[in-house]
Structures are given as C-alpha cells and as structure tokens.
Known about the structure:
This protein is α/β, with parallel strands linked by helices and 235 residues long. It has 8 helices and 9 strands. The protein has a 5-stranded mixed beta barrel with strand order 5-8-7-6-9, surrounded by 4 helices. α1 (11-19) packs across α8 (218-233) and α2 (58-72) runs parallel beside α6. The longest helix has 16 residues, at 218-233. It is globular. The chain starts with a strand and ends with a helix.
Amino acid sequence: MSTIAIIGAMDEEVANIASALSDITVTEEAGVSVTRGTIETNKGTRVNVAATVGGMGTVNIAATTQHLIDADQPDAVIFSGIAGNLNTHLHINDVVLGGTLRYLDTDMRLIGQWKPGTADQPVEEFHSDDRLIEVADKVLTDLSVHHITGIIATGNYFVDDPKKVEQVIRETGADAVEMEGAAVAHVAARNGLPVLVIRALSDNADTDYVEFKEFDISEYADTAAKIAVNIVKRM
C-alpha cells in the first residue's frame, strides 16, 4: 500500500486532512503529534497517510519532514497551507502550486552543494514533482479553484509591508511568500522523494503579524486541505 506524508505549518492547515482519514491513530513523536490513517482512492484502493503540523519556519518544518520520511517511508510528500499573495493577477483564496521554490535568505552557492546539488554544481532552487503538479491541476480545475503553477518564496521572516514585498519579488520573482515550502522541497530532494507544495492565498502580504494572528484563516487552510485530500484520492 502506498504512503503519503502530508504536512502543514499550523493546526488549521492539517485539521481537515486528519478528519478525512479512517482507522486513525495519533502519536506524539519528535516534538509533533502525528495522525496516521487511510484514505480510499477513486479507484477503490486505500492509501496510508501520515499527517502532522510541523510548525512555522524552515528548521521546524525540515525536522518534521525528515522525521516523517524516516518513520513512514512515504512514496511522496505533500505540503498544504496558506501564503501571502505577491501576484497582482491573483486574489485571496486562489492557489499557487509550487512549481519552483526559492529561499529568501539563503546563499545557495553554499547550501546548494549537497544532494541534489554538488560542490561543482550547487542547486539554486527546488521543484514540485511534475506528475503531482499535473494531478493537482486537474483537481483544482474540477473544483473550479483559480490557480497557477508558479514560484513560491520561503524565508524565516514574516513579509508584511510594501518594502519587503518589493524586495521578495525583486530577489525571487515569486508569486507567493511563506515560511516552509522550500525547506520541505529541499528535504524531499535530499531523500529522492517527489514533493508537492500547495498554497492557498490568505492575504496580500500586507498585514502586520499581530493583526494576522487574529484572522480566521480556516477558509483558506480548508481550501489547501481539500486539494491535498483530493490529490491523494486520485493517486
């Protein structure tokens, strides 16, 4: 039976995924609560799912991703969550699939020397799996969710003002900004696993974090979760 690891950064991003599982077990391990269960696919088979909230930021999410890879030996990794919109042609609750994932604050000449890069050819960015992108595109089209396959920027700071937005766009060309996607894709690439990063847009990267904490993000997190579940059902 295939196994898929699904990761989010916040509780709201994973709650609906966990509620879609059958035969659930929950265990505390490696500093996170992991919910395991199965989902019935559209073909009538079952897929094992390990879902967890990994926490915000690149280190938290990288540690969680590697733990699930070691513990569950998944066939693919999906990250599902929200992001700030940087693309003037997109709107709140649209979706960006992370065709390309780039770090905001990392010198890839150094970091990129290790697998899948080499000292002679460091990698500069990471990518979601083409097949998973194709499945996600079909799911989103069937759900009538406006979406693109684009560039997602990942950094360890909250982007919340016009100067930071301009800097992120200038340095990465990103359509969306967040704090985990590139790290998940980075760890998956080191392990030779296909990965998909899904981001529903919750704001326009123009809200102070103190205010953002008061937002009800459940609608946008639910969008990303619904997509992740439907992708698993089609695998």
